[in-house]
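Fold tokens
===========
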Amino acid sequence: MNELKKFKRRIRKQFALPTSKSRDFLHKLNALIDIYGKPNPTITQDDLEKEFGSPKEIYISFLECCSEEELLQATKIKRLSNVMLVVMLVVILVLSLVAITAIVKSYYDSYESIPEKVEIIITED
């Protein structure tokens, strides 16, 4: 059973483009792998590769059945999500630096406002 999970994980790692078609393909392939592997608990990675092919071969066969337009669209989406991730990380970094600077400035200002000597003058009326 563990070998089935490892094989599925290796296949999933090959699929770099997130599309609904790839998710459907992986779902159906996982079902086929389960059907093939359930009756035989001592199945190995080599047995699975002989039956289904290597993860790279599976991914290549998936790409061959996809149209160029679908692949380009998926590539654009992936690139856009990567750019958005980088932008969000930069914004978080800048906001963190601004917050840290404000905290340090506030601490420094409060430290400067502490009087060094207190002089008490008592006058008699």
About this structure: Residues 68-112 form the longest helix (45 residues). The helical segments are 2-14, 20-37, 45-52, 55-65, 68-112.
